[in-house]
Specification:
Helix content is 39%, strand content 18%. The chain is α/β, with parallel strands linked by helices. It has a single domain, classed as NAD(P)-binding Rossmann-like Domain (Rossmann fold, 3-Layer(aba) Sandwich). A seven-stranded parallel sheet has the order 3-2-1-4-5-7-11, with helices on both faces. The protein has a two-stranded parallel ribbon with strand order 6-13. α1 links the parallel β1 and β2. α1 packs across α6 and α7 crosses α11.
Length: 302
Amino acid sequence: MKIIIAGGSGFVGQKLTELLYKKGHDIIILTRKGKQSEGTIKFVQWLEEGAYPEKEIGWADVVINLAGVSINDGRWTENHQRQIYQSRMTATDELVRMVEAFSEKPSVFINASAIGIYPPSLDTVYTEKSTEVADDFLGQTVHDWERKAVAIKEKGIRTVLMRFGVVLGNEGGALPLMALPYRLFMGGTVGSGEQWVSWVHITDVVQSIVFAIENNCLNGPVNVTAPNPKRMKDFGKKVGAVLHRPHWFPVPAFLMKAALGKKSSLVLEGQHVLPEILINEGFEFKFPTLESALRDLFHSVN
């Protein structure tokens, strides 16, 4: 298939590109920079003055939107929050415009999203049927992001909103930072430890995107989390156990807030999210348990 990826140079995008390339698909990566195309991977400029990528691309079978400034990079100043928000709105608006201009419409549009749309809770279990929206920066960002993506669905194109959990990988995401205190023999419970971590291995993330491409039954929100979320204290203990490090040095909430500011909510708050649709449709997680995921990731770099 001819597949467009916006955000193909990011953490998830690189892994997804590798997998789709191995499957023999023609990949078009939208980029702000001029890059030399490589084999069946083509780079096309977008979001720059005078750039009309649809003229060069013409059409596509699949469009995947992973574009946006990372929420993990930097402190959440007002300016950084504005960049996180606007980058997602601008990219999605441009993809909607491009799809409208294509000579042939894609069969599916896949939009990255996040479980941050759900309100933090210690007791509530969220599935794709849950309609609550968090009344905070991340919740509003995801809500507005998905609303823009739905504009493509209204044109008769199957649209999948993939709500990623805490993605675990070695090249990016939250795990390297979460594991660092344990590697230094300083790991321990963060905050109360009761907050939920709905995690997912990077391999299962990219496999779930391929699953969404190939399964016409998937529409609308899809939670991309492992079926066995953990509370933060149990998550930390498992990290320590797999790394053969102690879990003993607690990090109070006020220290996290002082160090990270508003971004501390990413580790001090959480949601208990289950991938009900993926499970019901027969998706098989390669790493359904936290121990299997951590052993794979830590042992691959040790």
